[in-house]
Amino acid sequence: MEERSIFHCLSPLDHRYYLANRNLFDQLTGYLSEEASIQYCIKVEIALLKSHVNLSMKGRPDLLSALDSVEASVSPSEVYEEEEKTQHNIRALVNVLKRKVPEETAPYVHLGATSVDILDTAQSMRMRDAVRNVIIPTLLKVEEELVRLCRDNAEVPQVGRTHGQHAVPITFGFAMAEYASRLGKSIIQINRLAGDLRGKIAGAVGSYNSTALLTSDPEGFEAEILESLGLKPSETATQMVEPEYLLRLLLEINVAFGILANLADDLRHLQRSEINEVRELFKSEQVGSSTMPQKRNPWNSEHVKSLWKAFAPRVMTFFMDQISEHQRDLSNSASMRFIADYLAGFAAAAARSLKVLKSLHVNAAQMMKNIHSSGDLVLAEAAYILLAAAGESEAHEIIKQLTLRCEKEGISLATAIKDNSAVSELVSRSLKAVGLPEAELFFARQEQYRGAAVKKAREIADRYEGIQDFLKEDK
Keywords in UniProt for this one (predicted)? Predict the structure, then answer.
C-alpha cells in the first residue's frame, strides 16, 4: 500500500489527535483500524473452519495446527485487491482464505455462514477487546486520580456553588468524590456490557437453515465456535446480531463521556481569574494567548468538553442503527464504521482528563479566601436550621429578612442575629444543644459548617480505590 503523510488525512483524529495521543491510538489500532477489522473477521472464519474440521474431519490435529498460522499470512491489501473484483468484502476475504488454508479444508471456508455472521461477530470481539484492553485501563487511571484528589483534599474547605452562586461550605475532596462515584459506577457498567457483547453463526436470516444441513445441532455448532472466540450467541438473531447489545455499551460510554465533560466544565470554571481555586499545569515554554502573554488558559479542560460536543451527539446514530428492514438491510453499513471514530474520540477525552488531573494544582488558600468572601452569609442555612430546631415556625422568613438587612447595611449575619435578642437566644440555645461553639465563634468559622463532607469524601475514596475488585466479579 502507498505511504501517506498523516497531514494529508481528512479526520483530525488521524493527524492532530493522533499526534497528541500516539501511544493510545496505536493501541486502539489493534482493534479499531481497517487492518484489525480484517484480522478479526479472519479469526471468526478460522474458528468456523476449525469447527468444520472437528465436525467433518474428526478434528485432525495436522489441519487444526495448519490453520493456526493462516491469520498472519493474510494482508489487508490482498483482501482489498480481491474486493476490487468481487465488489463484496467478505467474499473477497473468503477467496483469499481459500488460497491460504490446506487444500482439503478450502471447501469448508465460510460454509454455513453469511457475511454478517462474520462481520457482527468480529465487531463484537473488536469492541470488547478495545474497551477492556485500552479504554477501561485509561478510565481506571482517571478514576485513580479522582480517588487521590478525594483523599488528599477531604478536609480542604471549599465553598459549595449552586446556580453559579455561593451555597454552603463543602470540601474540595467532597467535590471530587462526586466524579469518582459517577465515573466509577460507569466504568463498572462499561466493563459488564463489554463482556455481554454477542456473536452469531446462524446463517442468512438467523434461523440456522444452512448449518442445519450440516449438523443435527446447529445451535450447538454455533455455540462451540463462539465459545472459542470468548462470546455467547445472540439470544435471537436475524441476519444480524441484536443491535441492543452494542447499543447499550455505546450508550454507557456516552454516559461516561458526559461525566468527563461535566468534570472538565467544573474545573474550567474553578480556573476563572476571579475564582482561581485550581490550575492546570502551565509549562514555561507554553503559550496561553498569541497576543496576551499573561494568559494561562484552561485549554485542556476546554478540550475535553469540546471533544464531548463533537462526539456525544453521535448517540443518535447509534439509536438509528437499531432499525433494519425485516431480517436485514444495508442502512447501517456506513454508519457503523464510524463507531471506531467515536471510541477514539472518547479515549482521547479520557486521556486528556487524566493529564489535567495528574498535574492539577489545588489552591487551598484561595478556596478558604473564597469561602470568607461572602462573609458569614454562607451560614444563613445554618442559622435557619438552628432557629427552626428551637421551635420557631417562621425561621426561614426571619433569617431571609436578616440577610436582606445584611446586604443593605453591609453588616454580618452574626451582627444581625445578635441585634435581635429573641433570635439570638434561640440560635444560641440550639448551638449549645448540639455541642457547637457560641454564636460569635460559630459564625466566624464558616468553613467548619461542612456536614458529612469529609466523611463522604473518604468513604468514596475507599470504595472506588477497590474498583478493580468490582471488575473482577464481571469477568
Answer: Lyase, Purine biosynthesis
Prediction pTM value: 0.93
Residue 152: which residues within 8 A CB-CB, separation 6 or more? 173, 362
Residue 166 pairs in a beta bridge with 161
104, 86 contact by CB (below 8 A): no
110, 45 contact by CB (below 8 A): yes
Q: In whole angstroms, what is the distance from residue 367 CA to residue 379 CA? A: 16
Q: Which three cell numbers stand for residue 131?
A: 474497551
176, 305, 364 from 258: Cα distances, Å? 15, 9, 27
Q: Are strands 165-171 and 157-162 parallel, antiparallel or unpaired?
A: antiparallel
Contact of 172 with 183, CB cutoff 8 Å: no
Positive or negative torsion for Cα 284, 290, 292, 298: negative
CA 73 distance to own-chain centroid: 36
What is the spatial distance between Cα 134 and Cα 247, in angstroms, rounded to a whole number? 19
Q: Are 309 and 298 in contact (CB under 8 A)?
A: no
What residue ranges define each of the domains in the chain, with the CATH number in brackets?
33-108 (1.10.275.10), 115-147+165-370 (1.20.200.10), 374-444 (no CATH)
290 pLDDT band (50/70/90 cuts)? low
Cell of 301: 479542560
Q: Quick one: which of 321, 301, 310, 178 has its CA closest to 249?
A: 321
Determine the Cα–Cα distance for residues 117 and 204; give it in Å rounded to an integer: 8
d(CA 136, CA 219): 32
Q: Residue 1: what pLDDT?
A: 53
Mean per-residue pLDDT, 275-296: 77
First to last CA, the chain: 39
Cβ neighbours of 441 (radius 10 Å):
12
Measured distance CA(110)–CA(182) in Å, rounded: 44
Burial code of 398-427, b = ≥16 C-beta within 10 A, e = fewer?
bbeebeebbeeeeebbbbbbbeeeebbebb
Give me the residue label for grid cell 497528541: 20
**For residue 413, what is its C-alpha cell?**
449575619
| pLDDT number for residue 450 | 95
Handedness of CA 303, 309, 315, 317 (dihedral sign): negative
